[in-house]
Amino acid sequence: MAQDIFYDTAKLSRSEQEAMLRKAHSICERWWFDKLDCSESFSRQRVKDISFEDAMDHFVEGALMKVIHRRQILPVDKPHLEVGFRSMEIPVDFFLWIIVPLKHAADIVNGTSEIGDVVTLLPCE
Fold it and tell me: The dihedral of CA 115, 29, 78, 6: what is its sign?
């Protein structure tokens, strides 16, 4: 079975990460936003009726961004890119999930003025 590919986004600047999240949202198939508030539940809960801009307010200093080529664990019915972040906020932690079809994968970095052709995502070693 094919393994998922995790891309290294830690080398990107904060503005490059934010530009990539915004670009992924602009070409996504779907997205959602979860929270983990252990005073309410020990599992993540979907945040309903939140705008993308309000979700991005939680992309704070210290948040962990991710880009994963999902080929094995598929929450949707076909391989795709999963782009998003974990806010690492206390006491409530937030998670943004953006699902990008593979046919649009290159568009996340190409044509984004803040990132341009300079950034190349490499698999984590």
Answer: positive
